[in-house]
Amino acid sequence: IKLQCQRMSPNTETRLVLLGKTGSGKSSTANTILGRKVLIQGSGMWDFCGRHLTILETPGLMDTQQTPQEVQRELRRSVSLLYPGPHAFLLVIRIGRFTEEEKETVQHIKLAMGSNALAFTVVIFTHGDLLEEGGNVQQCVIDGCPELYELVISCGGRYCVFNNLTVRNKEQVSEMLALVDSVLQANEWHAYCGRMLHTAEDERKLLLEKEKMLNRRREHDIREWFERELEVMDSDRSKRENTIFMFCPLIYKMWINVSLCGPMQHSMWKQH
């Protein structure tokens, strides 16, 4: 599907994509936004305060036997389903330690849709009930993890906390939509479109080419090092052989002398 960048007017349809690894709370977050427990995986629509919302939940990342390329391809395919393009990505992260799987999830998103995708992203921290009473996610979670702090900054500092135990909590949905509006305003009310997907594909190809060049350079450096080591070994072996050859005549003479002197010394001992 060829997507075109389209400008939207405020308070019209808003297309949102939920991203995150399995277990992060994507389905619960989708149900909270929709106001009812209906969405398991796929898309759903709902009118919220006169605003038409379309929610697409992508398959969980990092939970299959797919290769990174297959995961990224599936991610791009899912995004292309929201024609003519999503207005914002909702990156769902469970409150707690920022795991290696979650870091890889972010990397998959950047590789599949380009680093520019983070400019369209709102981070949603789920399981807000795990925060201690009066706890602040900025102090308790974000500030304690440099990688997570950098991610939030890359997303324009846009984040909110969801407690999905209360599905009909309109207040937290309103807070999230306010952040989505800030995404739209920052991007001049343009959706993430096919042109950006193509740019992301160009970025990915360029990155792969750089990796290939780097690997070739490493191989070349290793080959040169190995050849130098072989030369040193050959040189050392040649030196050892020359040393042996130099001492061979001397050793031979010593052997002759010992051989000749042996019988003479024996006869002298007998005479005594």
Automatic annotation (TrEMBL):
Gene Ontology MF terms: GTP binding
InterPro entries: G_AIG1 (IPR006703), GIMA/IAN/Toc (IPR045058), P-loop_NTPase (IPR027417)
Gene3D superfamilies: P-loop containing nucleotide triphosphate hydrolases
The AIG1-type G domain, residue ranges: 11-201
Keywords (A to Z) from UniProt: GTP-binding, Nucleotide-binding
Cited SUPFAM superfamilies: P-loop containing nucleoside triphosphate hydrolases (SSF52540)
Family the entry assigns: Belongs to the TRAFAC class TrmE-Era-EngA-EngB-Septin-like GTPase superfamily. AIG1/Toc34/Toc159-like paraseptin GTPase family. IAN subfamily.
Protein name listed in UniProt: AIG1-type G domain-containing protein
Provenance organism: Neogobius melanostomus
